[in-house]
């Protein structure tokens, strides 16, 4: 029986993107179960699909539930040890986990002001001081790793830690955020990765599906656009 990855809308669900990238990078066979996060009564469906947790991403293995992207990263890495989700060097591996954990628990201002929206671009967005502070912290985390590894990713090859920062790469592009050329090149490398291209293309296909909507996304500022990320 394949594990089932429960995710939300690809266009807007940043945590779903992380979970999907982790599972795809592992090379494990898995099935997907997507739930529209702006559908009527979506919470009831998610609660049933995730063993009562209600969050995405969640991996379901029969009656076993693996919730939260950090736990999914460890599950995928242990289930597919040759996939190289984490660096081989112990110190690199510890640092990569540290960076992923900081992304997992921080950057609240950036998340709130710049929600993931793969279908649009907002060139007139002006970041406030809190967002600028988050961007400066990202540079502090990224630049030493990129200098040591030589890029294009934080520890050379695309891995779990880069999956955790993938939604940030979309935010940098979508909101035209002011970052250094090195940080922008890293974000572009993530956006151009084949798995990211696949996710964005699948998000575009999802967007045209007929369904009932509650207006939750539009009310939250998740306005649709003309999919500039597809035309990079």
Automatic annotation (TrEMBL):
GO MF, one annotated term: maleylacetoacetate isomerase activity
Keyword Transferase: yes
Highest rank taxon of the organism: Bacteria
Keyword Ligase: no
One BP annotation, GO: glutathione metabolic process
Matching Pfam families: GST_N_2
Keywords linked to the UniProt accession: Transferase
Domain named GST N-terminal: residues: 3-84
Protein name as catalogued: Glutathione S-transferase
Source species of the chain: Pacificispira spongiicola
């Amino acid at each position: 029986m394949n594990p089932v990855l429960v995710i939300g809308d690809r266009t807007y669900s940043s945590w779903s993107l992380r979970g999907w990238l982790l599972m795809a990078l592992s090379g494990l066979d898995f099935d997907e179960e997507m739930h529209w996060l702006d559908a009527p009564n979506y919470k009831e469906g998610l609660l049933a699909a995730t063993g009562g947790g209600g969050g995405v991403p969640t991996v379901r293995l029969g009656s076993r539930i693996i919730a939260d992207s950090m736990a999914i990263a460890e599950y995928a890495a242990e289930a597919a040890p040759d996939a190289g989700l984490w660096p081989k060097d112990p110190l690199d591996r510890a640092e990569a986990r540290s960076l992923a954990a900081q992304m997992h628990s921080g950057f609240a201002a950036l998340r709130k002001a710049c929600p993931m929206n793969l279908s649009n671009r907002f060139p007139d967005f002006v970041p406030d001081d809190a967002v600028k502070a988050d961007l400066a912290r990202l540079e502090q985390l990224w630049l030493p790793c990129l200098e040591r590894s030589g890029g294009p990713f934080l520890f050379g090859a695309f891995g779990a830690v880069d999956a955790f920062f993938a939604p940030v790469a979309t935010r940098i592009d979508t909101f035209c955020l002011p970052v250094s050329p090195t940080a922008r090149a890293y974000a572009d490398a993530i956006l151009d990765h084949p798995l990211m291209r696949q996710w964005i293309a699948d998000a575009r296909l999802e967007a045209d599906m007929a369904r009932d909507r509650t207006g939750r996304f539009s009310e939250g500022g998740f306005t649709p656009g003309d999919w500039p990320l597809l035309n990079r």
